[in-house]
Amino acid sequence: MTKPIGNKTKATVWVMENGKMRSRFDHLTTEEPLEIRLVSPNRTIAVTMRSPGADFELAAGFLYSEGVISCREDIQRINYCVDKSVDGEQRYNIVNVELREGLSPDLQPLERHFFTSSACGVCGKASLEALRLRCSPVITPNLKVTPETIYSLPQQLRAGQNIFTATGGLHAAAVFDAQGQLLNLKEDVGRHNALDKLIGAALLADELPLNNHIVMVSGRSSFEILQKSTTAGVPIVCSVSAPSSLAVSVAQEFGITLIGFLRGERFNIYTGYERISTA
Question: Is 81 a catalytic site residue?
Fold first, then answer.
């Protein structure tokens, strides 16, 4: 690989319609592995299937949400791997992260991340008890938003999905302010990757915690989505589909308002209904 991978791949498809077949070109969402390595100690800590783009943010967000780092200053340098055996060729599927001198994180829990599927996240995720031990309560109880603010989120999320418009095969995670204004949006084949990119971007911009913000993801809310939102201090998490039972447990444990089936002017509140004003 001698140049960055695009996030769209051109392909020929055959369309069957009204008993007739025709061929045409289509665009697919690019899915490629990304290896996240620490420079010292020299160790691969995760391989995730992702959509190329915002790779540094993805690596930073992953390290933050997994407790390897606690602030932007813990990262000294992020860059793509350079293959010295092939005339200094950059390898855009490998990201090297150099932590600040003297930082010695416990990497044992990360062994479960050696391979991460874009489709369903990490298999065998840590339990709620492990998350409880890692995270201190940072979720602000003071944020209140109107139903109209929540109603406005899906349309903004969909309008910001440029790659999805071209491929039809991509998830998204977006962060909004308390008035429902879209601040940032990331796309990826995996919801968890899109959220890591979003959190990583906030981390590198010194904008964490997101304790006066709303996060919305396409698809469903899983344990992993709530785990990452918890570490980023997000008080309101929304999705267009249903949450899992463990996602509801995490939201309840850490005081997050969890909203699902957000479509049109309707949504379900699973936890934290007091943040939604009804007057």
Answer: no
